[in-house]
Specification:
2 domains, alpha+beta, 3-stranded antiparallel sheet
Length: 262
């Protein structure tokens, strides 16, 4: 009975984690560039009462033995970096990545590099391209004050049409980076990630070349969360939580019966 109580308790804890992860996915269904998270679980150690292959007599062996599991645990939570759908915005400074890659942002105070899929850029008081929180795009690109329009090419080339010139001029080149294991990046909020030992170092490249996704100006990448799928996951986790609580109640009832025996 004590095994049943412990196993059911670990199941309730695991399903609570599943609900937490799913709820966060649903909360970010409209977050630009958000990547949904998947919870991965593993069964715990087993109490082996009889090892498979144990001899039962002189000629026979147990084909499967007796192994009783002790529950479940959360092994990891994993970001799924599939590309979301593209939404036209009409803003010439918005940029979406069609495939693999991250934009690089410089944190103003520490100078640390952050990585993001959120291409909702703005120009600050100096004309420099920054994120919604004021993080500078790296490499830095400055839009001239006399620019009447800005265009971002698929290869990251940024051109501006000046009011006093007939032909557009190149004002910068957006460089993206990728990682051997993007799932190992540390999510720090604000649609941003930081490098970790598991992600590996950033690998810089030109958008649209050598496996790097091309850029699409005037678009933003939406979240890759599928609402119907997450709602099904939420219902499934809720039912699993209820079933585990029923197992706790059943084990408790059996212990009560034993304690009342004379």
């Amino acid at each position: 009975m004590l095994r049943a109580l412990h196993s059911a308790a670990t199941g309730m804890d695991a399903q609570q984690t599943y609900i937490d992860v799913t709820s966060n996915n649903l909360a970010n269904v409209n977050t630009t560039g958000y990547k949904k998270v998947r919870a991965n679980f593993q069964d715990l150690i087993y109490q082996v009462q009889q090892t498979p292959g144990t001899s039962t007599n002189a000629v026979n062996e147990m084909p499967s033995g007796i192994q009783i599991g002790l529950g479940v645990r959360t092994a990891s939570t994993q970001k799924e970096f599939t590309t979301g759908t593209f939404k036209p915005t009409g803003n010439q400074l918005d940029v979406a990545i069609q495939g693999d890659g991250f934009f690089q942002l410089v944190e103003p105070n520490s100078g640390l590099i952050h990585y993001t899929r959120d291409g909702a850029f703005h120009s600050d008081e100096n004309g420099q391209l920054v994120s919604a929180e004021g993080y500078l795009l790296d490499p830095n690109i400055t839009v001239p004050a006399e620019a009447v329009s800005v265009n971002v090419g698929a290869d990251g080339t940024v051109t501006a049409q000046l009011s006093a010139q007939a032909d557009p001029i190149q004002i910068g080149q957006i460089q993206t980076v990728n990682f051997v294991n993007p799932g190992g990046l540390i999510a720090v909020g604000g649609n941003r990630f930081m490098q970790s030992g598991s992600s590996g170092p950033p690998l810089a490249g030109i958008p649209g070349q050598n496996g790097f996704g091309g850029l699409q100006g005037g678009f933003l990448e939406t979240s890759n969360v599928k609402v119907v799928e997450e709602m099904i996951n939420l219902i499934s986790a809720q039912r699993a939580f209820e079933f585990n609580s029923k197992a706790v109640q059943a084990a408790d009832g059996m212990l009560r019966t034993l304690s009342q025996m004379r």
